[in-house]
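Notes from hallway chat w/ T.B., transcribed later so I don't forget. T.B. wanted the structure written out for a chain they're using in a teaching module, and asked if we could keep both sequence and structure tokens in one place. Agreed to drop them here.
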Amino acid sequence: MQHVLTCLVALAAASFWLSTRVNKLVPTSYMDEYFHVRQAQRYCADGPIQAEWDDKITTLPGLYLISLIYESILGLFTDQKCSIETLRSINIVFICLTFVTMVSILSRSKSDVQPVYKALQLTLLPVMYFFTPLYYTDIGSALFLLISFSLARQEMFTLSAMVCVFY
């Protein structure tokens, strides 16, 4: 358990540092992030029912709903309503939860490999970690897929399906 906590703190600190660097160097939306940030800001301004949906977005609204909840929690501590920095920071939470979920899944396997370090290695794969400082759906999608997989392994099939449909 101590190794999990140590790795989690290191992952969160490194991700926070990287995120602050990216926010400083790239203060505006990067590539497709433009569409996601704009949609999340619509959710923040108008709510999920009234917000106009951008037809260029091909993903389900899970990220924007979670962002709305995340923003309302962070709104207690900051006055920046759905800023790009706040929206991007949700992936720091997602990458940390992804790591914890991977540890949980790998701990149940019969491998000789230490699950904590294998989970950290998988979490830091460039194809996965690259999107951590940006507001994209990739980290959240991987997280919810892993949660769904974990639930399915525990034979909680209905809950597993609901997690997949949500995000």
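Follow-up for T.B.: The chain has a mean pLDDT of 91. Might be a good example for the class.
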